[in-house]
Amino acid sequence: MSFHRVSGPDIDHLRSFLRDSDLTLAGLDDDAVRVWVERDTDGTIVGSTGFELSSGGEHALIRSVAVAPDRRAAGAGSRLALFALEQAARADAERAWLFSRRSGPFWQKLGFTSADRHRLAAALPDTRQVCLFIETGQLDREIAWSRTLIDLSNKNEPISTSKSSLERSSTC
Fold first, then answer.
1. Is 172 a member of any domain?
2. Is residue 87 part of a domain?
């Protein structure tokens, strides 16, 4: 399967998929949020992955990593997560962060370690997910994870980083 960048009308299909996975829907249509999906032969979304860069670009918030229930336990989650990590590294991010209350062991297998949620929020203060968690008080209930991206950097491969995709369209 291949990854397809989400845009326009695909966002509503992605929202439905992520809602079923009980993941955050905030900011999916923000230009700064980069999200990809995998589809089966019928066009149904079977996986998603993405990230949001900090305003300076050195930090990435990994988000929207989900796998359809019938595709789990086959390595799809790791493949999706690694794709987002590699894309963030290619966009020059040096550290990846994420929130996960249920999947800590999965993320630990990918090199993540427990992190302070307030440090995450300080590194990524203007990302849509962090803004939402601060505004709603959810930040204090979240579990944060982090890992370096230095080992995934490959400066030889081009990545599309139009200026508009790196700028924040809004802040908290």
1. no
2. yes
